C-alpha cells in the first residue's frame, strides 16, 4: 500500500473518531455507530492467514494465537463465559471495581484520561468512569479488536453523564500509542488492563508487554492491572471446562472462524476442547485435541496439515499469579505497585501501578 493511501486512511479514521467523539459528547447515543469489521479487509485476512500458517506449523506443539478467538461470535461466547457460575473471574474483577472505585480514583493524579486495553463490552469499567465523572469531564478510549464489542462498549459507556467515549479498533499497543500521542501535556493517563488478560502472555512476554506499555506513558501515569490469583486446581479447571460446554464452543469457534474467513475445512466434530493445569508454569492451557488421524486444508494460508489422533493444537494460556508476584513484575517493567485490592470469594487482585 502506498504511503499516501495509508495517510488517507489515517485521516479518514481520524475523522471517523472525531465524529464518534462528537456524537457521544452531545449524548446522542441511540443507534450504534456504523462500524465495518476491519478484521475482514484484505490486509487483515493476509495477516490472519500468515499467523495461522506460522503457528500451525511450529515444530513440536502446534498452536493458534489466542487473539483470534475474539471475532463477533467469539466475543459473544466470551460474554457468556463471564456469566457462567464456574467462571468467577469476571465477577470478582467487577466486584473489586464496584467496591473500591472511589478509593482507586482518589489515588490518581488529575486531570486524568482513561484508556482501556481490550475493553470488551466495557461493563465493569462503568464504576471507574462514574467515580471519575464526579470530579471532571472524563475521556474514555476503549481499545478493542472486536468491532462488535467496541460498538457495544461505545454505546453503553457514552451514556454516562460527563463521559466522552472515543473507541479505537486496534491492537493494544497501536491503540495505546495513538491515545497517548494525542493527549495534551497536562493530561495524565490511567490505563486499564482488566480481567487478567495479561495472563494470556507467557511470563517473559508479559514483562516485555508491560514494559512497552510503560514506554507509552509519562512518570506519574497509572496502570490498573487485574490479575487472577492461583487457587485450587479443580476450581481452576472447571472455570475453563464448564459442564454446559460454553468454553468448548468458544475454543472450537476458532477453527470455525478459520473455516469462514480463510477457507479452511476443519471438521469441528473431530476435535475436543481440553483445559489443562500446567503446574510448572502456573497456567491453564486450552487445547483442541484431534480425535482421529485427519488432514486439514486452509486455502488462504496455502496450508495442508496432517494431524495424528490425540495430537493437540494449543490455543490459549491463562497464567495465574501469587499476590506477591505483582510488585516484582511491575518493577521489572518500570512501575511501582502502590496498592492491591483482593477479592476473598474468588482470589483475584486489582493492582494499581504508577509509572516511575
Ligand atoms: C479474557 C484472557 C482473561 O484467560 O480467563 C476465558 C479468556 N478463555 N475462558 C481468561 C478465557 C477461556 C480469559 N481472558
How would you portray this structure in words?
Helix content is 40%, strand content 23%. By secondary structure, it is an alpha/beta fold. The longest helix has 23 residues, at 3-25. It is globular, with a radius of gyration of 20 Å. Mean pLDDT is 91; it is low at 1-36.
Compact summary:
By secondary structure, the chain is of the alpha/beta class.
The separation of the N and C termini measures 39 Å
Number of strands: 13
Question: What is the tally of helical segments?
Answer: 11
The structure class reads: alpha/beta
CATH homologous superfamily label:
Vaccinia Virus protein VP39
Tally of domains: 1
The Rg value, from CA coordinates, equals 20 Å
Provide the CATH topology: Rossmann fold
Which second-level CATH architecture applies? 3-Layer(aba) Sandwich
- Helix-residue proportion: 25-40%
Q: What is the average of the pLDDT values?
A: 91
Q: Largest beta sheet, briefly? A: 7 strands, mixed
Strand/helix succession: HHEHHEHEHEHEHEHHEEEEEHEE
Instruction: State the strand order across the main sheet.
Output: 4-3-2-5-6-13-12
Helices, strands, pairings?
Elements: H1 3-25, H2 42-56, E1 62-63, H3 72-81, H4 89-106, E2 112-117, H5 126-133, E3 138-143, H6 147-157, E4 163-165, H7 172-182, E5 188-193, H8 203-216, E6 222-228, H9 233-239, H10 246-262, E7 271-278, E8 283-290, E9 294-298, E10 303-307, E11 312-319, H11 325-332, E12 335-343, E13 348-355
Parallel strand pairs: 1-11, 2-3, 2-5, 3-4, 5-6
Antiparallel strand pairs: 6-13, 7-8, 8-11, 9-10, 12-13
Helix pairs in contact: 3-10, 4-5
The structure holds N,N,N-trimethyl-histidine (AVJ).
Amino acid at each position: 500500500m502506498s504511503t499516501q493511501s495509508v495517510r488517507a486512511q489515517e485521516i479518514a479514521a481520524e475523522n471517523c473518531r472525531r465524529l464518534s467523539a462528537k456524537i457521544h459528547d452531545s449524548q446522542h447515543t441511540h443507534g450504534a455507530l456504523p462500524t465495518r469489521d476491519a478484521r475482514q479487509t484484505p490486509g487483515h485476512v493476509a495477516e490472519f492467514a500468515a499467523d495461522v500458517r506460522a503457528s500451525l506449523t511450529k515444530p513440536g506443539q502446534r498452536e493458534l494465537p489466542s487473539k483470534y478467538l475474539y471475532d463477533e461470535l467469539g466475543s459473544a461466547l466470551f460474554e457468556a463465559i463471564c456469566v457462567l457460575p464456574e467462571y468467577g473471574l469476571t465477577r470478582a474483577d467487577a466486584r473489586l471495581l464496584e467496591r473500591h472505585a472511589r478509593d482507586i480514583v482518589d489515588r490518581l493524579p488529575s486531570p486524568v484520561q482513561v484508556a482501556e486495553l481490550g475493553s470488551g463490552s466495557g461493563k465493569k469499567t462503568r464504576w471507574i468512569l462514574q467515580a471519575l465523572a464526579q470530579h471532571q469531564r472524563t475521556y474514555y478510549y476503549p481499545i478493542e479488536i472486536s468491532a462488535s464489542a467496541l460498538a457495544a462498549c461505545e454505546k453503553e459507556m457514552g451514556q454516562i453523564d460527563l463521559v466522552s467515549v472515543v473507541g479505537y479498533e486496534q491492537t493494544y499497543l497501536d491503540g495505546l500509542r495513538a491515545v497517548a500521542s494525542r493527549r495534551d501535556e497536562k493530561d495524565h493517563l490511567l490505563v486499564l488492563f482488566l480481567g487478567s488478560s495479561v495472563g494470556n502472555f507467557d511470563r517473559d512476554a508479559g514483562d516485555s508487554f508491560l514494559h512497552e506499555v510503560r514506554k507509552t506513558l509519562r512518570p506519574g501515569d497509572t496502570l490498573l492491572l487485574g490479575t487472577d490469583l492461583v487457587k485450587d486446581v479443580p476450581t481452576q479447571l472447571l472455570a475453563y471446562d464448564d459442564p454446559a460446554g460454553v468454553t468448548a464452543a468458544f475454543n472450537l469457534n476458532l477453527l470455525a472462524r478459520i473455516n469462514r474467513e480463510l477457507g479452511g475445512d476443519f471438521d469441528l466434530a473431530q476435535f475436543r476442547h481440553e483445559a489443562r493445569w500446567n503446574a510448572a508454569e502456573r497456567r491453564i492451557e486450552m487445547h483442541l485435541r484431534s480425535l482421529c488421524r485427519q488432514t486439514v486444508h486452509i486455502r488462504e494460508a496455502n496450508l495442508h496439515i496432517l494431524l495424528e489422533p490425540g495430537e493437540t493444537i494449543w490455543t490459549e494460556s491463562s497464567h495465574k499469579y501469587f499476590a506477591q508476584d505483582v510488585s516484582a513484575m511491575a518493577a521489572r517493567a518500570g512501575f511501582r505497585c502502590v496498592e492491591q485490592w483482593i477479592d476473598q470469594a474468588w482470589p483475584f487482585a486489582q493492582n494499581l501501578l504508577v509509572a516511575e
